[in-house]
Amino acid sequence: MCSRRYFLKSSASVALGALFLPVLSEAARNTIKVNNVGIQLYTVRKAMLNDAAGTLKQLAQIGYKELESARSEKGLYYGLQPKEIKNIAEDLGMTLRSGHVHIDNDWERTVAAAAETGQDYLICSTLPSQGQTVANYQHCADTFSKAAEDCKKAGVMFGYHNHDYEFEKETGQVLYDVLLDRTDPEMVKMEMDLGWVILTGNDPVTYFEKYPGRFPLWHLKDMDKDKLQSTEFGKGAINITRMLQNADKSKMKYFFVEQEEYTGTAMNSVKYNFNYLKKLHM
């Protein structure tokens, strides 16, 4: 697999320039109302490992409603049991909707745990086998199809979360498109990380139109195109408002705020991002 920075720096600067739209003025923002804001818990990963229940309480106090977990050194739910995180979230007025996992030797237990939490989606966060070739992506697509069958039996929807390297090409084929074209759109959904898609010079809206209904989940983030890393909303180069205005084209059901790097503390960043979104209104 190529490095993220190598691939991004080798992407076409013209395409990137067309997609890094300026943030809209305050007046132009007054076209959208954002409710049920979700968060990918990887954003507050250290806090979750130190005190999962306390961190969830802080997120609830800020106003976050939807949760997506991420596999950690303490397991799928930061040391909490499946029913435990479900109950804590519900008591706080939140819902665990999704979780990032790997397809590995623990897959059967992973699916069972997801079913126990009552979450809607189980998202593979990394390719199950490595290789930037069409053949490997075809193999991964077939693995996803089998995983989706397992999830369906458990009452959970399977999906895959992209990075940047999936948008490389081999023999003229975009590798990400191989995953989309080779899997059943009713069985294998995609969680689109909008930031990484745009950094590669691609437009998420083009994918929403070409593959309708495939992107029910989003990672919503702003990106510093010079540092090639995430930042707080409105401080980077991605037009958050434009993305939200195209939610219907995506058939988006849930979005999760994600920020991987911070200028201060993670909790200050998630507060800032939540307040930014709540200022967007009809």
Structure report:
Helix 6 runs parallel beside helix 7 (107-117) and helix 8 packs across helix 9 (175-182). The strands form three sheets. This protein has an eight-stranded parallel beta barrel, surrounded by four helices. Strands 6-7 form a two-stranded antiparallel ribbon. The chain has 282 residues and is of the alpha/beta class. It has one domain (51-278): Divalent-metal-dependent TIM barrel enzymes (TIM Barrel, Alpha-Beta Barrel), CATH 3.20.20. The protein contains 14 helices and twelve strands. The longest helix is centred in the middle third of the chain and has 21 residues, at 134-154. Residues 1-7 and 12-30 have low confidence and may be disordered. Residues 1-27 form the signal peptide.
Structure keywords:
single chain, 282 residues, alpha/beta, TIM Barrel, eight-stranded parallel barrel, 14 helices, 12 strands, disordered N terminus
Order of helices and strands: HHHEHHEHEHEHEEEHEHHEEEHHEH
Q: Based on DSSP secondary structure assignment, what is the total number of beta strands?
A: 12
Query: End-to-end span in angstroms?
Result: 43 Å
- Share of β-strand residues: 15-25%
Q: Extract low-pLDDT stretches.
A: 1-7, 12-30
Question: Number of helical runs?
Answer: 14
Q: Output mean pLDDT.
A: 90
CATH class descriptor name = Alpha Beta
Oligomeric state as shown: single chain
Major beta sheet, strand line-up: 1-2-3-4-5-8-9-12
CATH architecture: Alpha-Beta Barrel
CATH superfamily: Divalent-metal-dependent TIM barrel enzymes
Q: What's the helical proportion of residues?
A: 40-55%
Shape designation: globular
- CA radius of gyration is 18 Å
Helix/strand structural class: alpha/beta
CATH fold-level name: TIM Barrel
Question: What profile does the largest beta sheet have?
Answer: 8 strands, parallel, barrel
Q: Could you say how many structural domains there are in total?
A: 1
Keywords: Isomerase, Signal
InterPro entries: IolE/XylAMocC-like, TAT_signal, Xyl_isomerase-like_sf, Xyl_isomerase-like_TIM-brl
GO molecular function: isomerase activity
Organism: Pontibacter silvestris
